[in-house]
Specification:
- By secondary structure, this protein is mainly beta.
- Helix content is 3%, strand content 28%.
- It contains one helix and twelve strands; from the N terminus they run ββββββββββαββ.
- The strands form three sheets. The protein has a six-stranded mixed β-sheet with strand order 8-7-2-1-11-12, with no helix packed on it. Strands 5-4-9-10 form a four-stranded antiparallel β-sheet. The protein has a two-stranded antiparallel ribbon with strand order 3-6.
- The longest helix is centred in the last third of the chain and has 6 residues, at 136-141.
- It is globular.
Length: 191
């Protein structure tokens, strides 16, 4: 009973930045890559996640999510790298100039842009093409990755790297290469 108190029936508890995961990476789209590489972020929470302040980082580039951006409950957000556009709750644009992903790279999510070497600040990490990418040591210290592991870069042009939906997304075996499904449920069901 909540007599005299605000009703809480049906209230949705918002998720946190820690509920976000790298879900899909489009490294090598068909044709020219400039402004066409993408990263999809998945919200695993039952409530929406406010992404204001979330920082993505790769190579020597970083991007801070603007105020007002939110990933819906159990929803997806597509990050358009090196491309200008109008931000929505399903699509965020880094603008230009910004680097595109390469065949051997890593991508990381941080709570903020304060300290990229602090494991407590890292939310998620994924690397492909070769081990030893920048900040692999931070991801290992955060318990998000094991040093020396990477998703192989041998896959056809136009395929994306997708989380299979099993495990926590912290090992290459939990990903596969398949037809891109950006903004929709991944096609991959096995590695």
């Amino acid at each position: 009973p909540s007599i005299g108190l605000a009703n809480t029936c049906g209230s949705v508890v918002p998720g946190t930045l820690a509920d976000l995961r790298i879900n899909e990476v489009l490294v090598d789209p068909v044709g020219a890559n400039a402004g066409q590489t993408r990263v999809e972020i998945r919200n695993s929470a039952a409530g929406p996640v406010n992404t204001a302040g979330l920082t993505i980082c790769f190579q020597s580039n970083y991007f801070i999510f603007p105020a007002g951006s939110t990933v819906p409950a159990a929803g997806l957000l597509v990050l358009h790298l090196n491309e200008a556009g109008v931000n929505t709750n399903s699509d965020v644009y880094t603008g230009t100039p910004f680097a595109d992903l390469t065949a051997s790279d890593a991508f990381y999510l941080y709570l903020n842009d304060v300290d990229f070497s602090d494991p407590a600040n890292m939310v998620d990490f994924f690397e492909w093409g070769a081990a030893g990418q920048a900040r692999e040591d931070v991801a290992e210290a955060a318990g998000l990755w094991t040093a020396g592991q990477f998703f192989p870069a041998v896959f056809p042009e136009g395929r994306s790297i997708q989380w299979t939906g099993s495990g926590d997304g912290n090992t290459p075996a939990e990903f596969c290469a398949d037809v891109p499904t950006l903004g929709a449920v991944n096609q991959c069901t096995s590695s």
